[in-house]
Amino acid sequence: MHNNLNIWRHLTAAPHRSLFLAGALQGVLTLVWWIYDLTGRYAVFGTLSIWSIAPTWAHAFLMIYAFFPFFIFGFLFTTYPNWMNGEKITARAYMTTCLLMAAGVALFYTGLVHSKWIAILGVLAMLAGFGNAFGVLQRILIGASGQDRRHAIVTSTALFMGCLGIAAYFLWLLTDIHFLLEFSRHAGIWFFLMPILLTVSHRMIPFFSSRVLDNYVLVRPYWILWVMLACSAAHGFLQLLEMTQYMWAVDLPLALCALYLSIKWGFLRSFQVSLLAVLHISFAWLGLSMLLYGSQSLILMLTDSNMSILGVAPLHALAIGYFASMVLGMASRVTIGHSGRPLEMDRFTWQLFIGFQATAIVRILPEIIPVFAQYTATLYLLAGLIWLSCFFLWAVRYIPIYWRPRVDGKPG
């Protein structure tokens, strides 16, 4: 009993502990479920599974709103008070979000098997968790005075869009109105995840680089952030309007901005420090993915075709290459730094991260190189298995840190 109390005390000692733990477990669970579904669908193992929600749309929801947010909230609950010199967020506030979202995920999985109505309750619980997080962070933002609030304003706005995205998914489950599903999907990527990851990258990558690289010139112009955010929003609206042939006009400028920042932030120099390199590698995927999006859109316009030339390769280059890799890199850094350990990435974690890059490459290969198209099902499964293996091993390495005290004896 005493040991259980100690574990709970450590888990609730800092925002990232419980939320990263839940995110790590969900990262494993959602891939186990997805691989199970794919093996049945492609007749590799078992039979085709019947779920209460179409598996493609369940997978999209689980990844956008029930995997990344655990890490995003763990990070923002930690950084908002630091960014704006505000009071630390109470355990009650961040544990409320964590428990509501964890309960929502559990109900969603249960509902997939048994009843759509249970899944709907799960979505509602996750929306309540999001709403609580938005309210807590908004109070810190409003209470900040004399601080640079630009990054926080963007992330708070994006969190609000995330709430709208979950609400749209909830209403889609109730009404079956397809536009609500489309809004939930595209808002989740272009109005929620992209703005948050872009803003955190803009603030943290040059800052972390300046701390460890000699004679580093910190480049962080705000105008380029505003351009990139505007391009992301425009992309989302064009997708909602099904005007994909015009997306190149915003995708290619976004790609150029991202590639420019990769160079100015010192992509090649970052390899001197592996804990920094993982962030730079992740960010480089943004430029590449937007080049793929822009190329696909341009081809659609020039050929006057409705066929998607590269399929969902640009999406997975973005979601796995940029979003997931950045989350893994940031979570590793926060976990190491806030556990009192030296800010160094061990060889094992570095190898897992490199393996994670293979997930993105294997997933997009059959759609960008025609010769691999005949192995599509095999490569999809292989990509899922690589992700699962790397993320499972990452979870095994890092999860125990969350319920143990800091190694330096400090609180938190």
From TrEMBL:
Q: Where are the transmembrane segments?
A: 18-36, 56-77, 89-111, 117-141, 153-175, 187-205, 217-240, 246-263, 275-295, 315-336, 348-365, 377-396
* InterPro entries linked: NnrS
Could you list this entry's UniProt keywords, alphabetically sorted: Membrane, Transmembrane, Transmembrane helix
Residues in the signal sequence: none
UniProt cross-references to Pfam families, sorted A to Z: NnrS
Q: Superkingdom of the source?
A: Bacteria
Return the protein name.
Uncharacterized protein involved in response to NO
